[in-house]
Design a protein that fits this description.
heterodimer; A: 110 residues; mainly beta; 55% strand; B: mainly beta; seven-stranded mixed beta sheet; four-stranded antiparallel beta sheet; 11 strands; 0% helix; globular
Chain lengths: 110, 116
């Protein structure tokens, strides 16, 4: 069974700082998705990475997929209070079901 | 174009009562997924349905829980004789088709079930 581990579980930093959160798997990902979830809302897809070594940018967010496709990272530059939320990674298994990490809870203090 | 609609947003039930959670997928989407989320945790898959068919219910407890997605109307997740451990946020997601690389699921805002 694929297991996704996200770290850190919780991160609280000041506005303007940079941060990186991680998603690691016990086996090779087929593809990986990153979501952000705000309190009281459902997750919203940020990006999907498919190819080993792939890097995708979404404004101040940079997503990397490890060469071996067993890990991924999300780097946020100059964090803003609007970045606050739960960041979840998820992988689609062979039955087309999403397997989710437990998430990193991010708080950006003004 | 309305997104995935879930209702109610909040549902309070006493132990032993029934809970009915509704999900209307996005227009044109015929695939519905139900997930459960406990505080500070990720989402746990419960059931995957297409119109009038349950495709995968491997994540759903065999007792007290049932789901349907009729030809007409919303998908329903039904929990009978609720217990305190059923308290959680229940999210519904929809997609037009499964299994496509870069498949995007659209999530509703969830139903927060509280069992007293």
């Amino acid at each position: 069974t694929q297991l996704l581990e996200q770290s850190p579980q919780f991160l609280s930093i000041q506005e303007g700082e940079n941060l990186t959160v991680y998603c690691n798997s016990s086996s090779v990902f087929s593809s990986l998705q990153w979501y952000r979830q705000e309190p009281g809302e459902g997750p919203v897809l940020l990006v999907t990475v498919v190819t080993g070594g792939e890097v995708k940018k979404l404004k101040r967010l940079t997503f990397q997929f490890g060469d071996a496709r067993k890990d991924s990272s999300l780097h946020i530059t100059a964090a803003q209070p609007g970045d606050t939320g739960l960041y979840l990674c998820a992988e689609m298994d062979s039955n087309y079901q999403l397997i989710w990490g437990a998430g990193t809870k991010l708080i950006i203090k003004p | 174009n309305a997104g995935v609609m879930q209702n109610p947003r909040h549902l309070v039930r006493r132990r032993g009562q029934e809970a009915r959670l509704r999900c209307s997928p996005m227009k044109g989407h015929s695939h519905v997924y139900w997930y459960r989320q406990l505080p500070e945790e990720g989402l746990k898959f419960m059931v995957y349905l297409q119109k009038e068919n349950i495709i995968d219910e491997s994540g759903m407890p065999k007792e007290r829980f049932s789901a349907e997605f009729p030809k007409e109307g919303p998908s329903i997740l039904r929990i009978q004789q609720v217990v305190r451990g059923d308290s959680a946020a229940y999210f519904c997601a929809s997609s037009p088709a499964p299994g496509v690389t870069n498949e995007k699921l659209f999530f509703g805002s969830g139903t927060q079930l509280s069992v007293l």
